[in-house]
Structure formats: C-alpha cells, structure tokens
Amino acid sequence: MNPSEADMLLSNDQSFSFNNRIKSHAIKSVNNEIISPVPEKRKKIKDVYNLLQISFTKPYKVEFRVYDDGVAYRFAASFKDSITVKNEVASFHFLAGSSAYFPAIHKRDDADVFHTSFEEQYPLRKLDSLENTALAYTPVLVALPTNPKIGIIESDLEDYPGMFLSGTGSPVLVAKFAAYPLEEKMTGGEYPQLLVTKRADYIARTKGTRTFPWRVLMLADEDRQLPSNDIVYRLAAPSRIGDASWVRPGKGTDEWTINVNLFNVSFRSGVNTASYKYYIDFAKRFGFDRIMMDAGWSDNLDLFKINPEINMDTIVAYAKEKGIKISMWTLAHTLNRQLEPALNQFNKWGVDFIMTDFIDRDDQKTVNFYYRIAKACADHHMMIMYHGAYPPKGFNRTYPNNVTREGVLGSENNIGSDRASPGHDVTLPFTRMLAGSFDYEPGMLNNATKKGFRPIEGMVMSQGTRCHQLAMFVVYDNPMEIFSGNPSQAWLEPKFTELLGSLPTTWDQTNVLDGKVGEYIVTARQNGDNWFIAGMSNWTPRDITVKFDFIDASVKYKATICKDGVNADRYAADYILNDISIKQNDIIKIHLAPGGGFLIKLVKE
Fold first, then answer.
1. Is 357 a catalytic residue?
2. Domain of residue 546, CATH code
3. Which of 294, 412, 439, 441 is catalytic?
4. Coil, helix or strand for 318?
5. Looking at the domain assignment, is residue 276 inside a domain?
6. InterPro entries this protein is in (predicted)?
7. Closest among 157, 155, 159, 162 to 234, alpha carbons compared
8. Is the terminal CB of the chain with fewer CB neighbours within 10 Å at N or C?
9. Rounded to whole angstroms, how far apart are CA atoms 424 and 414?
C-alpha cells in the first residue's frame, strides 16, 4: 500500500491530527490463546501479535497490532467529557491497477443509501472505475496486481456506526459512515421498519474515554488462506455473558424459502399446527436439533397475537416429547417494543433461539440495538440470529449467544432472482465470511443447471448441483445451520438426508486445502475424531484432487462420499453416494460438474 490517512474529526473543528505531536510510545509482543465457546473455525485460537501503542499530547492513543495474517489499528480516547464525532478519516491507498470484490449497495427508492439489508453480490471491479457514488459495506477484498490480497474489514464495532467504503475514481478507497438518525418514520406493509428521514451532521455522540473499532487489513499470499482467517474474532472484545455452556447451536429447519409447500401429506400444508408437527417429525428422524417457526406464527406487530391456525401448547408439548427444540422468528421493531414480556413467554415455551428480522441499518443507534437485544437474550439464556443485518465483525465473540446472522445473499433470493449463482457461492468464503458466520440457509433439493434455472415461488430452485448445496454445510461458517429445502422431498431420499443431518456445525480445526476467489474452494474440518471435507465450484466443471495427508496416520477411516453424478451437468440433482476406506496420504480424484460440489465424511473405524 501507499501512505494512507487515519484521523478523527470532532465537534468545534477539533481533530486528532491538528496541532499535535507524539508524546511517547510502547512496543510489546503478545502470545495468547483464546478458547472459543462457539467455535466457527477452531476451538483454540492463537492470538499472537506485536503491539505498538503511540500516545499523543492530545488525550488519545493509536494502537497498532501486527499479526502474521493481518494488521490493524484503532484509536483509544481519554477525554473527560463525552465527545461528538463529526466524522472519521480512514483512507486506503492501493497500487495502480488494483481491483476489488466490491459489494456496491443498490439504493432503495424509499430510503438513503445507508439503509441496506447487506445482501449484495461481490463483482470484481477496477478501483479506478469506482466513483465516489459507489458505496460498499465491508468486508471488501482488494486484489493487487500481484499478491497479497487484502481484506478491509473492522472489528469490535460498538456504540458507533459501521464502516462503508467508497470509490474515488482512483486506486484509493475511503471510509464513509451513516450519520446519526435524528428523525425516523415507520414504513407500512407486512414487515414495517424504521426508515431514517433526517440525519445529524455527526456520526456518533459517545463517551470521551473509550476505544473505537479496529480498522483491519487481512493479508493472504494465497486465496485459500482467507476463509480460515479469524483475525476479526481475535480483535473483538471478550465475552460478556459469563458461562456460555448453555449456548448450544446446531442444525435446524426453516420453512420460509419453500413457503411450507409440503406434499405427500394428509393435511393442508401451511403455517399451522399439523405442518409444524411434520417438521418436528422430520427433525427427529434425520438428526436435526430444532425447527424454526418463521414469519406467520403470530401477528408481525404483536407476538402475543398467535395465528389461529397454530396451537402453541400442542406444538411445544409435541416438540418436547420428541426432544426437538423450537425457534421463533420476530420482527425487529416488534421485538424491541415487547422485549421482556416476549422473552419471558419464549422461556415458558422452552424456546432457546430466536431470529429477529428487517433491521437493515448499522448507524450508531442501530448498532446499540444489537447490543441491547443480545444482552437481554443472554439474560434469558437465549440464542439469537439477526436477519436484515450487518456482518458480525467480532460481535459473536462479545456475545456468543449471537450464534450467527444473515447479511448475505443466500437461498431465499432464489425465490425471485438468479443472483445466488455458483460463482457468487464460491466468492462468499473469501469475502463476506471474513467478517464472521452467515446464515445462507442451504440444502435446496430442487437443483437446476444454468440453462434450467427459473425463479419460481413455491417450487424454488437453486443454481448448481445437489452436492454444491450439500457442501455449503461444511464450507460456510455457521454454528446454527438452517436447512431450507423441502422436507417432503428429503423424506424420499433417506440416505442423503441422514448424511446431511449428521453434519456438525462447530469445528475443532479448519483447513482450506485449495481455492480461488469466485472459482472453487475445498475445505477440511475436524470435529472430534471425525473429518469433513467439502468442495464447491462455479459454473466451470473441474477435477479436484484430495490428498489425505492431514489425518491421523494411526487411524483408518470409513469415508462416506457424496459427489456429483455422471449426469449432474444435465440433471443437477444427480449424485452418487458410497462408502470406502481411507488412510493417511490416500488420494481421491473427484469430478465437479458445472456448479458442482462434493462432501466426504470421515469416521474413525
């Protein structure tokens, strides 16, 4: 990089940089280990870095951390009184000819550009082609003319707006922040939310003594180093919930994407008691931990006004009998208004995981909403997932009960668009996943070739093969994986569904064996004595070689392999499922169809 700027601009025309000088500095080396209570990538996280702390004559410091896989800086202020931050300067000057995987926001007609669901694609754009009207949320992955690749991201975002990046018509990206909301209005429609109608001339009013978010540059000589990088987690504030043993993520179902379009059943499918009992039976049969009751189980504006087609007492009793947990969807505005009574009611029902949806902002006021909700849920020993949400950025370390969140263009987009393509799918691990786990909701069983795909509501397809969807459960970080396919279809393929249901969602170790952004990825993960290896491709067919040099030499494994069938290029749901024995240094060659994938489950014999 070329020399770049960092500064804080305060009220009354004050800035950190003006009329200032260095007073002192300190350097030290740190070698720690973090034990993750909800291991997205690995249980034991090495936190090894060199720290430079520079103190100035003005009451603040700048801290730099240098890791082997990235660098970061942040400001730490020590003003006596509260401060008003007019703006923050963070510019990143790259070499001429650099490009970026840039998730530019498509502005809504009814709101300003900072109102976004954080669900964009990551096209590769030349930096000098991005004008100042091009605005993207982070992370943004920069590709230099030669390596390394550099991921720009933040960590430890609290009581402060999230960082966006804007183009400049040059190889420079500059930070932009949503100004503080002064006035808001509630939208109409089925899922009302607050839109900002007037913003202040500042981005935050906050305590004068505090640390500000880390500005992070994640570094990778090879593309495959990016998806397993956990620097954002390392930089985040430690857990605030104490004993987290009650945080128990796993796998669930969700009916939203397929619109509860069940078949081969004796009842009218829909948002009703019979359908949810069917989902509970499915979860019990195939090894899932829970079901999600998505939008429609209650009035969106009143969580105590239950859909008359639903008997919660019956569903709760049936789930308890089967040993299956129930999870509930909520509208963010409604949950905020009914928070404590709603959480008390969920506790009574035995609900230990909720989703809240349609937030779509990350200004200071909204970021504080995330913290308030996560703390309230933790007080009730409840896990939470945010939808319509900004990426985690280390929040899941501070509140491990926030086991995942959306902020990704995933399966539900197949209802009405073709944007969730295999090329997009194999870009996400190198871009969006740099900021933490995401709820893509894979497992679609109605699979389509590139020519055959159509967005059809009620008969929702996914692009690419069945094994491409299966591989997502291993390739993507998400401690609370959600199966969004049709359980009626899954019942017809019990061996495949048993394999899917047996997959863990937390990992002792993660190794990305190979991969290129937007082209393909092969990931190996360990859970206990078992290993899970999965790969995905874009629309280009390719041959993958897996060498098992990472497994225990003293152990022989039973390998269950699910790979694209010989006709998967024409019938995307075609797959082959078989068992073989594997030992260390064995080699397997696997052909991936266009939009293909594979999964190998290794169980110690």
1. yes
2. 3.20.20.70
3. 412
4. helix
5. no
6. Aldolase_TIM, GH, GH-type_carb-bd, GH97_C, GH97_catalytic, GH97_N, Glyco_hydro_b, Glycosyl_hydrolase_97
7. 155
8. C
9. 13
Question: Which of 183, 207, 235 is the last residue in one of the domains?
Answer: 235
Residue 75 has phi, psi (to 5 degrees) of: -95, 145
Tokens for 71, please give them. 């660098």
Residue 202, SS3? coil
Neighbouring CB atoms inside 10 A of 138's CB total: 27
**What stretches of 221-257 adopt beta strand conformation (E)?**
251-253
- Per the structure, the count of domains in the chain is 2
Q: Domain of residue 522: give its range.
A: 415-605
Contact yes or no for 413/119 (Cβ under 8 A) = yes
Strand partners, 183: 198
Three-state SS for 473-492 is HHHCCCCCEEECCCHHHHHC
> Tokens 């999600």 belong to which residue?
292
Q: How far apart are CA 239 and CA 350, in angstroms?
A: 24
Q: How many helices (H) and strands (E) does the chain have?
A: 11, 37
Residue 410 scores a pLDDT above 90? yes
412 is catalytic: yes
| Active-site position among 357, 362, 363, 519 | 357
Report residue 143: phi and psi, to 5°. -110, 110
Q: What CATH number should be reported for the domain holding residue 147?
A: 2.70.98.10
Exposure string for 227-237, b = 16+ CB within 10 A, e = fewer: bbbbbbbbbbe
Instruction: Look up residue 338 and give its two tokens.
Output: 């009914």
Give the pLDDT confidence of 489-501 residue by residue, as tens digits: 999 999 999 999 9
Q: What percent of the chain has pLDDT over 90?
A: 99
What is the Cα–Cα distance from 365 to 204, expressed in whole angstroms?
9
Q: How many residues appear in the chain?
A: 605
In a domain, 19, yes or no: yes
Secondary structure (3-state) at 466 = helix
Indicate the pLDDT class of residue 12, thresholds 50, 70 and 90.
Answer: confident
Structure tokens at 485: 């396919």
Closest by Cα among 368, 358, 354, 290 to 322: 290
Residue 314 lies in a domain: no
| Predicted local distance difference test score (pLDDT) of residue 133 | 96
CB contact at 8 A, 74 and 106:
no
Question: Which of 211, 235, 259 is where one domain is finished?
Answer: 235
